[in-house]
Specification:
With 465 residues, the protein is an alpha+beta fold. The protein has three domains: 15-161, Sensor histidine kinase RisS, periplasmic domain (Beta-Lactamase, 2-Layer Sandwich); 199-296, Orthogonal Bundle (Helix Hairpins), CATH 1.10.287; 299-444, 2-Layer Sandwich (Heat Shock Protein 90). It has helices at 2-11, 16-68, 74-85, 105-118, 163-203, 217-263, 269-294, 306-319, 338-356, 389-392, 412-422; strands at 88-91, 98-99, 124-128, 131-139, 148-153, 302-305, 324-327, 333-336, 362-369, 372-378, 426-431, 437-444. The protein has a five-stranded antiparallel β-sheet. Helix 6 (217-263) packs antiparallel against helix 7 (269-294) and helix 9 runs antiparallel to helix 11. The protein is rod-shaped. The model is unreliable at 402-406 and 459-465 (pLDDT under 50).
């Protein structure tokens, strides 16, 4: 049963519209079938009585005509009945070859009613010798079993001939009902799809246009509540961005004075360098707060040279003496926001240097992988356990073993992940062969990427550019 349930679930449509439509269609088909059976059950006895009365009348009139007709005129009478009324009459004999009627309920009801009125001796057949029809036996004298005749009525007088018409009308009613069911369900599915689209926009950090608060009362109430929630989230996000930006900006001025005072204090050089490094780390944290507080970038996407951008971002690190290897093609054009991608790449490099150390090699590559433009930063640090990857995308999050290290605010990867979602891309955090972390920025390639700009695998094809 479980296997059957899984099979049925796998073949069912996934959308509410089609699931509800199929359910309503099934209910309509079952209802139509049930009503047709109910109609037949109660209509068949009435029809059987009407047809039986017609058959009895024909038999009685035929018997009366035969009894009252002159013996020399009976043959003419039989010929006239066959020609004018389609009624054939033949003498019954014991050696007659007959085929019984079918055992359907309408015919049973008919024969029972005819036999009740004509007598228990009445016989029925669907074929007499080689002639097909509705055959009924009768006697001129009920007590004379040797003076028996067969009378044949055309089958179309007995059976229902408008079956096709009933089927056409039934099918038309079913189609109309299904069309109405589709329209009803679509009125529910359309606002739900709009709600899902708007929810995805809210989830990606964007402010969606308000939903229409119309339609059925339940849908309108949900739309109103969602619009209110989206508005509250937008105001909260704006307030958070304003607070972060204001606090971060106000902190940089006293930090600049503090650094100037330390450099002019005359303290030993190693102490000055340590304090200046702490101030620079605080300044980087403030920069991350500013980046996080900006929210969704307002810069419009445009075609930029990713290869040139990677070289520009990594060059200052090379001048600082960082062991960094860069492997990029000569040109790699893709639609993106240049400032946001610069910030994301710089955050990845800073994160790698913070956890791997500046004395370990760092590899930055760019290229095309599976129709996406990829920028990879690979280090030889401790890496990120697979079960911690999703948590590390959240703001103010650090690895457990890095909690004792107070450097950083845990915003770097959260900022990168937000930037990638704003580009309809994503950030991959993968383990590196031999130890370390591979942080990959994946951007939609668009239609302008050169096909030869293939992404090197794990930096093994890296060449200094």
């Amino acid at each position: 049963m479980r296997a059957l349930g899984r099979f049925v679930t796998a073949w069912l449509p996934r959308t509410l519209l089609w699931q509800t439509f199929l359910l309503v269609a099934l209910l309509l088909i079952l209802s139509l079938g049930a009503w047709s059976q109910i109609f037949r059950y109660f209509q068949e006895p009435a029809r059987a009585r009407d047809v039986a009365q017609m058959v009895v009348s024909v038999v009685n009139l035929t018997r009366t005509a035969l009894i009252n007709a002159h013996a020399e005129r009976r043959i003419d009478l039989l010929i006239d009945l066959a020609a004018l009324e389609g009624i054939r009459i033949y003498p019954a004999e014991a050696s007659d070859e007959i085929l019984p009627l079918r055992g359907s309920r309408p015919l049973r009801l008919l024969t029972d009613e005819v036999r009740r009125q004509l007598g228990e001796h009445t016989r029925f057949a669907s074929r007499w010798k080689a002639l097909d029809g509705f055959w009924v036996s009768f006697r001129l004298d009920p007590d004379d079993q040797f003076d028996e005749y067969w009378v044949m009525l055309p089958s179309e007088r007995i059976e229902t001939t408008d079956t096709l018409g009933w089927l056409v009308w039934g099918f038309g009613a079913l189609v109309a009902a299904l069309l109405g069911a589709y329209l009803i369900v679509s009125r529910i599915g359309k606002p739900l799809r709009a709600l899902a689209r708007t929810a995805r926009l809210v989830g990606s950090g964007q402010t969606p246009p308000p939903l229409e608060e119309s339609g059925p009362q339940e849908i309108a109430v949900v739309a109103h509540a969602f619009n209110q929630m989206a508005g509250d989230l937008a105001r909260t996000d704006a307030d958070r961005a304003l607070i972060l930006a204001g606090v971060s900006h106000d902190l940089r001025t006293p930090l600049a004075r503090l650094r100037l005072g330390i450099e002019m204090s005359g303290a030993p050089e190693d102490e000055v360098s340590a304090m200046v490094a702490d101030i620079e780390e605080m300044d980087r944290i403030i920069g991350q707060f500013l980046d996080f507080g900006r929210g969704t970038p307002q810069e419009p996407p445009q075609a930029i040279d990713i290869a040139s951008l990677v070289r520009d971002v990594t060059e200052p690190y090379r001048l600082r003496g960082v062991d960094i290897t860069v492997a990029v093609p000569d040109s790699l054009v893709a639609p993106a926001r240049a400032l946001s991608i610069r910030r994301a790449l710089a955050n990845l490099i800073d994160n790698a240097l913070r956890y791997a150390g500046e004395d370990k090699p760092l590899t930055v590559t760019a290229g095309v992988m599976e129709s996406e433009v990829c920028i990879e930063v690979a280090d030889r640090g401790p890496g990120i356990p697979e079960n911690e990857v999703e948590r590390m995308r959240h703001p103010f999050t650090r690895l457990e073993k890095a909690r004792s290290n107070t450097k950083g605010a845990g915003l770097g990867l959260a900022i990168v992940d937000r930037v990638m979602r704003a580009h309809q891309g994503h950030l991959d955090l993968l383990p590196r062969e031999g130890g370390g972390l591979r942080a990959i920025l994946r951007l939609p390639a668009g239609g302008s990427v050169a096909s030869h700009a293939r992404m090197p695998e794990d930096g093994r094809e890296a060449n200094d550019k």
